[in-house]
Structures are given as structure tokens and as C-alpha cells.
Known about the structure:
This protein is 31% helix and 23% strand. The chain contains twelve helices and 20 strands. The two termini are 25 Å apart.
Amino acid sequence: MQATRVAVVGGGLGGLTAAALLARGGCEVTLYERAKHFGGRAQTADVEGFRFNLGPHALYRGGAAMRVLGGLGVKPKGGIPGGTGTYALRAGRLHTLPRGPVSLMTTDVLTLAGKLELARLLAGLPRLDAGALARTSTREWLDTRLSREDTRAFVGALTRVSSYCADHDAMSAEVAVSQLQYALAANVLYVDGGWSTLVDALEARAREAGAKLETSMRVESVVFHEPAPGARVRGLRLADGTVHEADVVVLAGGPDDVAALVPGDAVLAKEASEAVPVMAASLELGMSRLPRPEALFALGVDGPWYASVHSASARLAPEGGAMVHVMKYLGGTDTGASEAELEAVMDVLQPGWRAHVVAKRFRPTLRVNHLLPSAKSGGLSGRPTARVPHVEGLYRVGDWVGPEGMLADASFASAESVARALLVSEQVEPRRAVGA
């Protein structure tokens, strides 16, 4: 029986994962990446020995990413951010960040009534059915579940840091609750060496399984055996005009990328036009040292701010140095930030920091997720499915696809679902990679 020929477009985390899983399952896989390097938004740059990710990245230890990586034999190394040196930022001042019973009782960021209300919420959070809140907005959930303004503000801050999203009026409460559950149950992992180490490991697994990986190969469009409706994929047309035959095409990119590769498809074009991304502003700092080594994390309570010294948990800086990420979560009518706004957060957390900057990057608008799962669209289950229903043999993976997870978790989960669907349909026994 001839192996299923699969063409994967896009060499980010989702595309590489799909290629590795499908090749392990016995498919004949070719991946096309238009850039010179794999990784997409998971690339890491080395600047003066500092490892710069594209904004602050973290792996949820209980999420789909760790599950799928583990299945591929990839075990990310890094550290779990601890409870020391963490603060709540309110009105330009640092306050004790509640992280347990003692800090909850001693912090002045909440009133006594607020502390009791927060304790009750957190105690019951693991038992909440997040899916039942799919069509409830995060704002509505906060307003109806919590009576205290200080508690609502603090829990709102927790939802921002766990979802990377500040638009509580639009975001489904399913996302807010499920992300809080992940964060509180198992915390996150900051990855040694940056996320390019995950890219390298996935590339290696895909090659070991027999996948053919091509860089600097731009795909022009998907080609079909017959015109829509009832289309069935025939392969890909590359920028040089050549057509590469395939039984299945997997598109690993955003909604705009998918629509562009299937020109004239009204359904995909509509999905792309209606997709609202999750955005943030990011300031990344490589520092020779920290003026205040004990101050490692700040979370905005009265504003959408985040600052974290990732190198305190993972190897991301030279000896004695520090890799710091500052971010403003954007959403709703708040669509941008100035560099000075993010620098002001550092002025509070690390006074005198400017004298120790070795490398610096500011990104006023950084796309952190291609699609905001809204209450209006039905939360996570309202996102597009991995299989394109009206086109035979066409699939997609990414952080905007499928009913599981946010951010990288959604990319890994959607890649896993594509492999599961194709391998079950082909009844192929997965083959193990060399050395796995």
C-alpha cells in the first residue's frame, strides 16, 4: 500500500510537529518553509550572549504542548518561576503578590473582604466547568462571580497573564478559567536557551522519522483535482510554477495565510476577515546585572502590565546577566503602547536599570495569538476545526485552530489532531523514530 503523501506548508512549531507525527505514522511528508530558518514566532536570536525570544514565552506544564512534546520524546529543559521576588503593581507602587495563604494575608493589594473572596474563588477553581462558560464573556463572569472590585481587578490581572489577552469584554470566560486552571495546577516552564531549542528538537524528530524539510521554498497556492465545490487537493504550486503532488495538504499558518493559499475560497476568506488577533507591546532587555536582584516579577493590577526576569529560572543570559521581558497586554480600544510606558514599569521594578542595558528590543505591536476565542463565537469550541470541512484532503494547524488550549498549546493540539485523524483513517501503525 502506497504511503499517504502529505505536504506541510509552514515550519513553525505546529508545522514541524505535524510533520514529525505524520512521518512517524508512516506518511510520506514534505514540509515547505518560505524563510531560511524554521521556527516562525518560536525563533530565538542570540544578542551578546542573551537569548531573545519574540516576547515572553512560557510552556504550560499541564498543557497540550508538554503532552505532545513528551510523545515525540522531546523533554524541554528549563525552570519553573518561583514565588520569591514577585509583586503586584498598582498605582505605580509594588505590593506583595498573593501566591499562598501567608502572602494573601499580608498583602495590602486586597482588602480583608477581598482576600476572603479571592480565597473562596481559588479553592473552587479546579472544580469549575470551563466549557460551560464558553458563551459568557470574561467581564460578565468576573462581575457576576465576584462582588468586590479589588478582587475583580486582581483576578482580571491573573487572567491577563495566563491568556496574554486584555479584552475581557470579548474573551470567552472559558479561556479565562481554563488558563487559570492550567497555571495554578502546574505552573509554567521557562525554556533554557529559548524556544529555538524546541524548534531544533522538532526538526530533528521530523528528519529522524523520514520527513523531507525544505527551507527558502515559497508556496504559491494549493491546487485541486477539480474546482470547488467538492474540491479535492492535488498538491501545491510553488513560486517557480512547479506543482508538487500530494494526497493531503496541511497549512500551518494564520487565517490570512490559509486564505491566501486557497484563493477564491469564500469560507476561508470570511474566516480570515473575521479573525481578531490577540496583540501585545513588548520590551525585551538584556542586562549586565539587575539593580535589584530580589525583584523578579511584577503584575499590573490596575493596568495591563507584566514584567519578568526569565533568566532567573532559565538559562537565557551570560553569567551574572539578566534577560527581562516587559509587556503591555492590548485589547479592545487599547491597540498600542509607547516604549516609555513599558520603561516606566521597569523604573518601578528595577530603578536604575538603564545603566545596565546591553541589548534592547521594543515591539509596539506583537501578535501573540492569531484568534481571540470570544464569547460571541462560542469560546474554544467556536474556533475553526483542523480539517477544512468543505475541501477534501485539506487541514490546518495553528494557535487559532481546534477546541483545546491557547497559544502554543493550541498549535501542538491541532497538529496532534491532524495526525490522529489521518493515521486512524489510513490505519497506519506509527513507526518509531531512530533513537526514540
